[in-house]
Amino acid sequence: MSLVPSQAPLLELSRATKLFGATVAMWRVDLQLGRGDGVGIVGGNGSGKTTLLRAVAGALELDAGHRNAAASLRTALLGHRTGLLDDLTVGENVRLFARGRGVGPRETTSLLARFRLDHVEHARVSSLSAGTRRRAGLARAMATSPDVLVLDEPFASVDAGHAAAITVVLTEWRARGGTLVVAAHDADALAPLCDRVHWLTAGRLLAPVVAARTAGGVS
Amino acid sequence: MALLGDAVALARKDVVAEIRARDALPAAATLGATGLVLVALAVGPDVGRMRLLAPALVGVVLAFATVTLADRLDSIDRADDALVALWFALDDPRAIFAGRVISLSASLTTLELGLWLAAATLLDLRPGAGALLLVPLAVASSVSRAAVAALVTSLVGGSPHRALLAPALLLPMLVPTLLAGVQAASAVLAGGQGVQWTAVLVAESLLFLGVGLITYGEAAGPA
Amino acid sequence: MMVRQTIASRSGRLVAAGVALVVASGLVLVPADASQGDVQRLMYVHVPAAWVGYLAFFVVFACSAGYLWRRDPRLDRLAAASAEVGVMFTGLAIASGSIWGKATWGQWWDWDPRLTTTAVMLLAYIAYLLLRQTVSEQRRRGRVAAAFGLIAFLNVPLVHFSVLWWRGLHQAPTVLRPGDPTIDHVLLAQLLASVAAFSLAYAWLVWQRTRLEGLLDTAVTRD
């Protein structure tokens, strides 16, 4: 896997800018994503991570600049919130989101197993602990079989053992060509998932640092 | 066709969530029953007057219940950002609108029939054979309320001022349904059929369904 | 910029002078109506204000459709400006009509179809302005306001026909109908002059309001 995108990017932000009133949430961000890329975004509270991720996912209208992506490009976003419906069970949620994506019951079952959610398949989301809910949200996002998966703090409230399981699933997924954009306030958590990490400060994206583990990489 | 399939799945999801959480419909039914009792008390113990007022009473109560119900269902979808997630998961996000119209229509029909039953008991209505005509009327008026409510709540749902905006925007749009529903019900209770008024209901349903399907994808999305 | 401001203020003075002239001639020069007396002079305010109200809301409708299609922020600003000015003129039409009604029919308000339709329309566009007020994100505001701008206008004929079937009192149309208008030619000339002056005033106000809105938008999003 090359660090330099060899073909036309899958998704591109150019000079993407977003303001909320007088607050600059994102300022002239340039970002290119290729197939199989793993891009980390590291920034403190209020640095604009959420805005940037929403822009990548296409869940935000830019005030200036452009987001270029094929119309058929599928993105899935796991933000601060998990995107789950409280009154449905974990299984019902995942199957609802998998609908129409050609993702059948066998795949959703295996997806639940890989995130170690099989034992809570029939539990309502409202009854889950924060960490379990987070994993269910991740399974929900992956159930839509996206081209680009956009994750905000995927390990928040998740214990070490489950975090390792998530890392394995996401790494395998990238190896099959999935593109991952993941944000956290702590670079260490991102290193295993990414081949480049950007710092984000006051809505400005800094040039990437190549992550330590990229050399061996996922290829 | 994918749209219809997704819409039905989403409507089913609303109904399942409603059966489990028992949130929206009981709240709307309580509101409705309270409305009936309050107006009956305000009017005084004159059954003849109340009988005349019954269709208006049911109509007004339903208008407010529509606001409550639609707002509640919309906020369930937004509580944990499921709405945005669904938007990206579906081939055609208009399924969210269509699904909401289906589930709202079902809830509102149930509510309207329940209210007629309550009104018949409390206000001594004797619709006779006309009682059967109230069923298609309830369906037609519920679809028309549901169509406009699903669209309007999708526009105001993201706002922190939704509690103010939902009734302010929705109630004026419900005026034709209110008038047609009340007049048709009065006609039915008086032994007529109210065909002309049912036509207004159908026109409103078609108009708002059409506009909703055309604009929902453009107007209500996260981007 | 300076040149545009000069044009704006000069044209503003011209429009103000035109309106003043028309009002003066309506109050003094034109003879009083044979049957209604001086009260009828309210027509020179009431009819043009109502006309401008409907015109303004049609502009909101057209700009809303255009905005959803093209996403041109100028259309959004034009819609916003037109809605504001439309609410003002519709309010004026209702107030003047109410006074006229009290003098000729003996009631401030009589629930006739045109009056009721106009009132519901006014409520809907006040809600439209509320909606704009509460959405801070510019583009999102444009989208949701456009969708509501569409249905608010489409609701008008529905309300109108519902109320028309419900009951009717208002005098039949006297100008816009085939054949010779039934009012006196001098009065008609005065009425048309008033309509023209009010329309100009509308255009000028909307132009200024749109310009101001545009300046605000650039001030916020300028690089």
Structure description:
The complex is a heterotrimer of chains A (219), B (223) and C (223). By secondary structure, chain A is an alpha/beta fold. Helices cover 28% and strands 26% of the residues of chain A. Chain A contains 6 helices and 10 strands; from the N terminus they run βββαββαααβαβαβββ. Chain A has helices at 49-57, 90-98, 105-114, 130-143, 160-175, 187-190; strands at 11-20, 23-33, 38-42, 64-69, 75-78, 148-152, 179-184, 196-201, 204-205, 209-210. Chain A starts with 10 loop residues before the first strand and ends in a 9-residue tail after the last strand. The model of chain A is unreliable at 214-219 (pLDDT under 50). Chain B has one domain (2-219). The mean pLDDT of chain B is 89. Chain C has 223 residues and is mainly α. Chain C is 79% helix and 0% strand. The longest helix of chain C has 37 residues, at 185-221. The radius of gyration of chain C is 19 Å and the shape is flat. Chain C starts with a helix and ends with a helix. Classes of the chains: A alpha/beta (219), B mainly alpha (223), C mainly alpha (223). The B-C interface holds B 148, 151-152, 155-156, 158-161, 164-165, 168-169, 171-173, 175-176, 179-180, 183, 196-197, 200, 203-204, 207-208, 211, 215-216, 218-221 and C 68, 120-121, 123-124, 126-128, 130-131, 134-135, 140, 143-144, 146-148, 150-152, 154-155, 158-159, 161-163, 165-166.
Task: Indicate the topology.
The complex is a heterotrimer of chains A (about 220), B (about 220) and C (about 220).
Chain A lengths: L10 E10 L2 E11 L4 E5 L6 H9 L6 E6 L5 E4 L11 H9 L6 H10 L15 H14 L4 E5 L7 H16 L3 E6 L2 H4 L5 E6 L2 E2 L3 E2 L9
Parallel strand pairs in A: 3-7, 3-8, 5-6, 6-7
Antiparallel strand pairs in A: 1-2, 1-4, 8-9, 8-10
Chain B lengths: L1 H20 L2 H20 L3 H33 L2 H8 L4 H29 L11 H23 L5 H12 L1 H15 L5 H25 L4
Chain C lengths: L1 H28 L13 H28 L2 H32 L8 H22 L3 H29 L18 H37 L2
